[in-house]
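pasting for ref
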Amino acid sequence: MLAYAKTDIGKVRETNEDSYICVPPLFAVADGMGGHVAGEIASRLASDTLKKCVASREEAPPSATLLEEAILEANSLIFRLAQEKSECAGMGTTITAVYIHGSKIFWGHVGDSRLYLLRGNQLQQITEDHSLVGALVRSGSITKEESLVHPQRNILTRAVGTDEQIKVDTGEIDWVDGDSLLICTDGLTTLVRDEEILSILSAGGGASCLEMLLAAANAAGGYDNITAVLIRPGEG
């Protein structure tokens, strides 16, 4: 497989509170929140903890449980730091992580960053948005189109580090020849619709695809930091 990652501060924010991991077989994006530098600290802590936990358990059989345990450990660290340091109060982060082992894709997820699977000409969102508008869409109260302009679209219902206990969504996918994976923060998905993401990814390429995705988000306003990791078949 081939893997590519890119992050951009966007056009509005003064700091980049996103972080990412692109170290095969581990991939992730994290979108921090909390004001000042707290969001940056939270996302970096989540990414660093994930890398350390996975590395320390290399002898364990690969599974989604490995990601879940790592994210729970990150939650404990971030929550404790937020309680101990006033400048970090209220900080938290999303995280969407993938571990690929042979033909298996294991994933763990908290927040509204996303994991997409591109298979053939179909783009499927694998993760569920832990956000107010995500819940409203799932209940049928608003449409997906309405969620993109909803005034409360940035409100998360679940994040790493904001509560002492959290639930981590996990899953497993079979890797099929030709599949691609996209992991991205909401700085991309709130501004670039799935149809445009599909069109860009379907054009092929790796680094050029990421450039086009981030450029599309910035062209649409670039209101947030934008981060994406793209995993392509090895022959592409």
